[in-house]
Design brief:
The complex is a heterodimer of chains A (317) and B (292). Chain A contains 17 helices and 2 strands. Chain A is mainly α. The relative contact order of chain A is 0.10. With 292 residues, chain B is mainly α. Classes of the chains: A mainly alpha (317), B mainly alpha (292). At the A-B interface, helix 1, helix 2, helix 6, helix 7 and helix 8 of A face helix 1, helix 4, helix 5, helix 6 and helix 9 of B.
């Protein structure tokens, strides 16, 4: 039996392969369209991923990856014994908590408020204005803050002085770094963040509100019992994405705020990678730091996704 | 819809409208302060701090920043990088997005997974830097464009848009003897102008705003785009660092009005395209929905 069966199988496989070949040739124009993008992802995303192996070497630029010495987990061991590691870990976790507790709810509340506005003109006006900062670079956002907060004639410090209080050196202080960071994140992103919630709210059946009003529900109860539950799954998806960003936290933003006076609270993984790696030339060690950060980020997002599915939500993949 | 007209509901509306109005005002006031400050004199700014409408108008700050080469040159660099970058990104993104929108394509899911995975995990700064260096892009304008040519997010939005075009279009074009390139350029792209406009504007804003790429890859201060110059003038010159590269022809520390004028110059192009952005982005951002 087996010979015939095997023979048959080979024939089918041959047919399948030639079918595949035919389809590929038929679609060669489409593959050609994908090719440049494919090469881009290969060179600038996947080759760097394979470049992570230098975390296990003492990489020397003049020796290249092929000839550099392999050192195993040396750099990871160093990372976990470095006193700076715990400072960075603490800073990252604190900024993450700040983000989650004080930033994440803001777009939801803003969207709830905007959703209650019935005058189309007023709604459009507010939306137009609060979306603007999202399109400004972090350099612009931070520059405007610096001009306003500066000790030397910044408007905020002039106000403080006018009230007879002592000027505050916001830009070079440990205590003011976190509030300043949070305020800038809210200023730039909260308005833009409402878009996705507003879209979800627009899809809610107006009949629900009608019915609840007949039952005597006031505006707050309607928000609480209709609007919020209707956007629950959107909130959860965005929460997962946020958790995936736990270790990102807007490096470009923090790098601008970082200075010798607030390093104690402002240094995060990426700023450390930049200083140690490109400024001081410790390529392998800083790659190990970045690698550690990426892995933890990946694990966290998978965990959050698993958790969302566990409680009966859809998750992101 | 029956409107709720109880006093409680009216009170709610009153509070809601005024809070939103205050939030909108708070968002925009810093910008107005900076624009106003840039159009007045140092003396006026020193006398009364809370300038929203200057009593003394002056172009001194602008005259000053354009009397030096630094800002003008950086604006040229930013403009060039934005135009070239947007074109390059759109070409790569739309070609790949269209290819991936074809449901009958073998290997499509593998390539999609490859793209999505880069959103969750990356090689990070140092390995990417080494690749850019290996390719000889250090100190070239291409370093601001090529390493970030495709945003996975924009790619997915475009693919979803192409996917939602009616299937019949392609089939009838094929029957009329149109090849794949013909379908893309004569049918799909003309029908997708809203999506293309949106994504182009997103790319353009990103290129205009780019600064860290320049710090990473351009050692030559003569090649810096305006965002880096802005950072040098405002942030570093706030007494936080001694690095003054790229601003040799500036009086240090720069006056407050000068800083404000540079902020305005770096912001203006975005404010100019903002009305167009606004017309499209709500649509565009939702085209793909966040699930991709």
């Amino acid at each position: 039996m087996s010979n015939a069966a095997i023979g048959n199988k080979t024939v089918t496989r041959q047919k399948q392969t030639s079918g595949l070949m035919r389809r590929i040739i038929k679609n060669k124009a489409i593959y050609l369209m994908i090719l440049p993008g494919f090469v881009y992802f290969l060179i600038f995303k996947y080759i760097p991923m394979s470049g992570l192996i230098i975390a296990f070497q003492d990489y020397q630029p003049y020796l290249g990856i092929a000839n550099s010495e392999w050192v195993g987990m040396k750099h990871f061991k160093r990372l976990f014994t470095e006193p700076m590691f715990f400072t960075i870990l603490r800073n990252t976790l604190v900024l993450f908590a700040i983000n989650l507790l004080f930033y994440f709810p803001v777009p939801i509340i803003l969207a709830l408020m905007l959703n209650e506005v019935r005058r189309a003109f007023f709604k459009r006006f507010v939306q137009t204005v609060i979306y603007i900062p999202h399109f400004m670079s972090w350099v612009i956002i931070v520059s405007i803050s610096f001009v306003m907060l500066s000790m030397d004639r910044g408007i905020i410090n002039e106000l403080i002085a006018m009230l007879g209080l002592e000027k505050i050196n916001f830009l070079m202080s440990n205590e003011w770094f976190r509030p300043m960071y949070l305020l800038q994140v809210i200023w730039r992103e909260a308005g833009w963040g409402t878009i996705i919630y507003l879209a979800a709210m627009a899809a809610i059946d107006p009949g629900l509100y009608e019915a609840s009003r007949i039952d005597g529900a006031n505006r707050f109860r309607q928000m609480w019992h209709i609007t919020l539950p209707s956007i629950r799954s959107v909130i959860i998806v965005l929460l997962i994405l946020k958790i995936g960003d736990v270790l990102e936290l807007g490096f470009e933003h923090i790098y601008l705020l970082l200075n010798s006076m607030n390093r104690e609270v402002a240094e995060i993984f990426d700023t450390y990678v930049y200083t140690a790696g490109l400024r001081q030339g410790q390529f392998s060690f800083s790659t190990a730091v970045g690698f550690f950060k990426s892995i933890v980020g990946l694990i966290l997002v998978m965990f959050a996704n698993w958790l969302a599915k566990k409680i009966g939500e859809e998750g992101i993949y | 819809m029956v409107r709720d007209r109880s006093w409680a509901s009216r009170l709610f509306d009153g509070l809601n409208y005024s809070t939103l109005f205050i939030i909108a005002l708070a968002t925009i006031l810093p910008f107005i302060h900076v624009v106003a400050g840039s159009f007045t004199t140092v003396a006026e700014l020193a006398q009364k701090q809370f300038v929203l409408i200057p009593t003394v108008w002056s172009l001194d700050a602008y005259r000053y920043i354009f009397s030096t080469n630094t800002v003008f040159k950086s604006l040229l660099v930013s403009t060039g990088v934005t135009l070239a970058g947007t074109l390059f990104s759109m070409l790569l993104t739309s070609l790949m997005a269209y290819g991936l929108s074809r449901k009958d394509l073998d290997g499509r899911n593998i390539i999609m997974f490859m793209v999505l995975f880069t959103m969750l995990f990356s090689g990070g700064m140092i390995p990417t830097f080494l690749v850019v260096k290996e390719m000889g892009l250090i100190d070239s304008y291409a370093a601001l464009i090529v390493p970030t040519a495709i945003s996975a997010f924009n790619l997915i939005i475009m693919r979803n848009f192409f996917q939602n075009l009616p299937d019949g279009l392609e089939e009838s074009a094929k029957i009329d003897g149109c090849g794949d390139w013909g379908i893309l350029f004569r049918i799909v792209i003309p029908l997708s102008m809203p999506a293309i406009a949106t994504i182009s504007l997103f790319y353009a804003v990103t290129y205009w705003n780019t600064y860290f790429q320049a710090i990473l890859y351009l050692n030559d201060a003569n090649k810096w785009p305006v965002q880096v110059i802005l950072r040098q003038i405002v942030i570093l010159a706030s007494g936080l660092a001694a690095d003054t590269s790229g601003m040799e022809d500036f009086v240090r520390p720069p006056e407050q009005t000068v800083k404000m004028a540079v902020i305005v110059v770096a912001t203006l192009p975005i404010l100019l395209v903002y009305p167009f952005l606004q017309k499209h982005f709500a649509k565009g951002a939702l085209l793909g929905s966040i699930k991709g």
